[in-house]
Every structure is written in C-alpha cells, then in structure tokens.
Automatic annotation (TrEMBL):
GO BP of this protein: carbohydrate metabolic process
Source organism: Sporosarcina luteola
NodB homology domain span: 243-421
Keywords of this entry: Membrane, Signal, Transmembrane, Transmembrane helix
Keyword Methyltransferase: no
InterPro entries in the cross-refs: Glyco_hydro/deAcase_b/a-brl (IPR011330), NODB_dom (IPR002509), Polysacch_Deacetylase (IPR051398)
Spans traversing the lipid bilayer: 7-28
Gene3D superfamilies found in the cross-reference section: Glycoside hydrolase/deacetylase
UniProt-recorded name of the protein: NodB homology domain-containing protein
PANTHER family according to UniProt: PTHR34216, XYLANASE_CHITIN DEACETYLASE (PTHR34216:SF13)
Keyword Repeat set for record: no
Gene Ontology MF, one: hydrolase activity, acting on carbon-nitrogen (but not peptide) bonds
Listed Pfam families: Polysacc_deac_1
Amino acid sequence: MRKITSKLPVVVGLIVLIISVGVIWVLIEKQGRVFAQSPERFVAKKEFERVLTLQERQPIYMKGAALTQIGELAANQPVAITGEDEVYYELRLGNMAAYVRKGQGTVEKKRLSTVLRTERFAAVQALDKTAVYEEDTIESNIIMELKEGYRYPIVREEGDWYILTIGERPGYILKRSVTMDAGLPVLVYHQVLPLDLMQTMNSTISLESFEQQMEYLADHYFKTLTAHELYDYLEGRLVVPNKAVLITFDDGLLSTKEYAYPILKQYGFTVLQHIISSRTGRAEGSQLFDAEGPLQFFTAADIEELNDVFQFEAHTYELHSLNEDTGTGVVFDHTKEEILLDLQQNIAQVPAAVSIAYPYGHYNEDFITAAKEAGLLIGFTTTEGYANRKISNYEVCRYGMTEKKSFEEFVAYVEGDMTWP
C-alpha cells in the first residue's frame, strides 16, 4: 500500500507563519505609552491626560520678543496640552511650543490619533491662509488654519498631502495649497569699501552695492535671523517668516565697522560676524581705518562696542590660513584634538558663539566632530545654496556677496528664486 502523508500540518504552519509576519508588531497601549507598532504604521491611538477642546475658534501664537500669531485652532478639535501658565495653554506645533489663550475650552483625559514617528523632513511656505485637515481628504474637518507669510515644519508627505503635527495630532495640508520651502537665504560678506577705494573685487563689495541690498531688504520687510533662530528652524522648532534672511560676515574686518555697521544699525538688522580671534590682538582700542594699508581687524574693544548689531561667532583662533604646498586649509594638517583646542581658544573671546564659519570653506569630519564637542550648533560652508532641513546643520550653505554679483542675482537669491544643479 502506498504511504500517504497528510499536507495539512504544512498548510496550517504556512498560514500561521504568514499571519505572524503580518502582525510582527502589536500595538499595546498602557499608561499612555505606545510600546510597539507596525513598521509601516505612522498614526495610532493614544491616551493623553490633558486634552484641550475649544468651544470657539482661537488664535495660536509663538513666543519670541513678543507674541506672534501663526494660525488659528478650530473649535471642537481636541489637541494635547504639554504645559500652561496663568494665561496660556502650551501645545506643540512640530517641535516648537505654541500657545492658545485660556478661557474658551475644556480640558479632559482623552484618546487621540497621534503621530508615532516624527522625521526631520522639510518645511512649506503658506502664501495664503491654509487649511490643515484631520484626514487626507478635503471632506474631513479642519483642525487649524495656517497664517499666510510663514514657513511651517512638516514631518512627512503622502500622495497629494504634506503632514505636520499639532497638539500631537497629524494634520494634513493639500500640497497645491502651499509651496515647498527651498530654505533660508544666508548671505556672506567679507570686506565693504566705497567703490573708489576698491582695489579688487575678490571677497569685496562696494559700499554702494551694499547700501542698495540692505535697502531692498528693509523696503521688502525682511526679518534678519540669529544663529539660534536658524538652528531652531532647521530642527523644526521655529516658524519663521517667508521674508527671512541671515546676514553673515567673515573675518571681523575693520571696514565692516566703518561702512557696514552704520547701515545695519539704521535698519535695525541683526548680523553674524565670525571672528578670527588670534587677529584681534594686532591692535588695541579704537583704530583709524586705513583702506590703503594692510587689512585691519576688530579689536576686543570693537567687539564690545558693536554687539548691538553684530552677534560674534567663531572662525577659529589661528587656523585661518592655507598650506603653501597644497593650497588647502591648514585645518587638514591638524588632528581633531588640535582643532578642538583651537576652537576653545576662539570661543573664549566670543563665548556666546553658536556657529562656526569654516576657514576658506575647508572642513572635514574631524573639524565637524571638534565643533560639536566645542558646543557649536551650526557650521557654515562656502557652498552656494539655501539653508534647509535636508542637509546637516554642520554643512549649511551660503551665498557669497562680492562686487562680481549683480543686484538682480541678490534679489533672486533672497526671494528664494535661485536654483543650482
């Protein structure tokens, strides 16, 4: 008699295996924590101890020197609260704190759909008031409305939608209602001289061109940002205006005190000035500017005097030179430990520094590691482009302004209209 082997156990085993693979991760909720989830899962239910539900639509603010309205939260749309003071509830928009005035809603324990994984993805510009929906369909309810004229951090895109987080909930923005943010313009200047005193266009811009550019920024209501604000923007902790720019200077040249400082002060601009601190001791106190003599650098007295406009940042202590044999930065001839020691000496003179401008734009992994260990948050390169969330905080692009660049190029860059291959 032929032996017949039943295939039933094999079939059952395969079914169990398939089911097991499909549910490798089980969502378990306990004490308000999500322990595990499917790798493909982006949103899950979670219980929050304090959830605000407004009875009427209310403005949402961010805090800076003053409260700035950045949107409106819809009525009957619950959002998780992360804190409060006597006047405002605090909730999160992306990674930043946002605020809603008390008195117009109820607070209770509640389950919400929440984002399981937030990613450093990108930002979008709201050119008009923009609806944020609770689901990826315009038939769903609106959670909030974004205010026009600002850049908002998003964590994901799915099909025709961008996703941000508000009060721990996912909010869906129709792609065609916003513009993808190319990033913040970061200008870099070195030497500023009147046209009749210029001997070269290399690293130099005329006073006349500089005045025209700063006037444009002022007339078009650009806000100048600090290094801290750039860092927060890159980390999704700050909503910044569409009309925002960083102005940076490298080297601490005395010409910028003589010619740039009065114009910047006139317009109330905040500017970064990267200091080579070994050169600040070449003179003492106030200096008479001599356009025809050797390059002059800020003194310690200048740094103290000019801090109402310039925020003084790092540019190394004595690594700002080139190897005569290779033509590359001497930084490549030093170990990470030597670079760190140099940066610590540099920062000792500019203790509020949070950024480093790499000398001649030359850097390597050792330099980046040293900058991190020195407590610096931003690294500025000489690569042309915008500062955005797609690149490392230690490889931030800038746009070098010299007399070789036209006013039209300047305008295209600050308006976000310039592209690179």
